[in-house]
Amino acid sequence: MPPPLTASLTDWLIRLERLHPTAIELGLDRVRRVAGALGLKPDFPLLTVGGTNGKGSTCAILEATLGAAGYKIGLYTSPHLLRYNERVRIAGREVGDADLVAAFEAIESARGDISLTYFEFGTLAAMHRFIEAGVDVAILEVGLGGRLDAVNLWDADAALVTSVDLDHQDYLGDTREAIGFEKAGIFRAGRPALCADPDPPASLLQHAQAIGADLRRIGRDFGYARAGAGWTWQGRHTAWPDLPLPAMAGAYQLRNAAAALAALETLSAPLPVNVEAIRHGLRQARVPGRFQTIASSPELIVDVAHNPEAARALASALDDAATAGRTFAVIGMLADKDAAGVIAALRGRVDAWWTCTPDSPRARDAASLAATIRSCLPEAVVNLATTPVEALAAAQSAAHEGDRIVAFGSFTTVAAVLDHAATQQ
Fold first, then answer.
1. Which domains does the chain have, with CATH numbers?
2. Among 12, 238, 302, 308, which residue's beta carbon has the most beta carbons within 10 A?
């Protein structure tokens, strides 16, 4: 039975979590049939962003830049940290509960006996809102993989793969070649297909060639270089010198920014932007939970790094922001993630660890995670806690002036720490 007519957004989300027999079911047949019944045929440019890491930051830069250029932007991302509404933004603002509920009701009426997952329902709802609001352009972040992900239902005017590494192996395969093929599924024949991975797997390149996509690779068709306190971007037809560094911390954000500008170059005919809009976008774009400092004394950093590639980026950011004190880690991960790979990436950068169990049915137990740390790093100082908040409190009690704490390992862990920090202000 559908929720009652007076159902709140919370009621709907609870129902959607229970509606489908599995949380993830890749494939486009079911969602395509419902989209057809709803008549969801966008008449505005679409920019699809996939990749193992860097999607959220790249989408944020695109949104901020296009918004500064005067366009009405629809942005769909996942997962959220604190509120479901974070996933759907129009003109820089989260869509309200009532509008999301209206979209869910429309989908419920149209789907008949077709079963949809939580993510598929949400993807259709986002596009429903974008069409209703009359956006100028929509930016769609891939949820999982690409080829069979619900956002791939629509043909992107430009598609971007930020990086290819190991994650979600149960669904995408256990090699970069297998995963690269899935990521490349968002490319379209004759349309710009951008790749910001400096060493893409052959499968991605071969698929782009096989379908006749307009492949544009970082280091060949576009690139960037640091220049003093700023940087320079070079594309096929355009160069942007004297750009400000991205507001988001981490040297890897330059690659994300370069990818965003390459995507904008491909859409310069329908969506021209000037250098002032680009500068504004770089200065303003921020995504919660990406090497974000949320407290001082001791410094508290949160980062959603949950796979080895993201952990290597976190390690690099910690190196760039070296501290005279100690670094403590609060870590909570999901059971289907490569915990050993994540921990190994932080080797030599953490003085003491506190493990916890995130609030998720997919969580890895804190004791199991502690055992993995000890196996990977026999000399590590490892402490166990139950929840992320308890782990954080223990780390804060042990910290002295000049020390720092980094909480990471999953979106759920970071969300708990952010939620707790908000109550302490």
1. 9-284 (3.40.1190.10), 292-423 (3.90.190.20)
2. 302
